[in-house]
Amino acid sequence: MKNLCLYIVGLFILLTVVSCSKNKAKVICPPVPLTVPVQTVKFQVVDKTSGQDLFFSQNPPYALTDIKIVFRNSSNKLDSISPPLKEELPNGSHFVYAVSNPRTPDTCYIKIKSLKTDTMISTFATTTTACSTTSFLNKVQVDKNAPVAYASGNVIVIKK
């Protein structure tokens, strides 16, 4: 019994010394939100010579039913949206594509009637803190053009 008491006291002293010897500041993390923010890409399609919006100008040459986005859903099967979501702002309107599964990279195809299909690749970056890991939309590349740094307010312009 005496050996057991010495063993317990020794273990207690060892744990106290080890836990007190590291001067780590405790990190207090706020509660994790129950929803994950949806990552979206905003884009508009314009005429390459006149700059006229092909869908939201005064007399657009295309109707909203003429555009289709094809992508891989969370089950890795091809899916499509026609027409994509539309966001109206005081300074103009544009399309919004919600990235369903933020993985690197996410590819979707934009098809407008008889025009050439455009490929849009969204690249994500990851930020890691002591409390969480967050993925955010970092760059967007349309066709073989150079990738563009993306911020939440940006609107990608696709010239046709």
TrEMBL record:
PROSITE patterns: PROKAR_LIPOPROTEIN (PS51257)
Superkingdom classification of source: Bacteria
Protein name: Lipoprotein
Origin species: Mucilaginibacter lappiensis
Upper lineage: Bacteria, Pseudomonadati, Bacteroidota, Sphingobacteriia, Sphingobacteriales
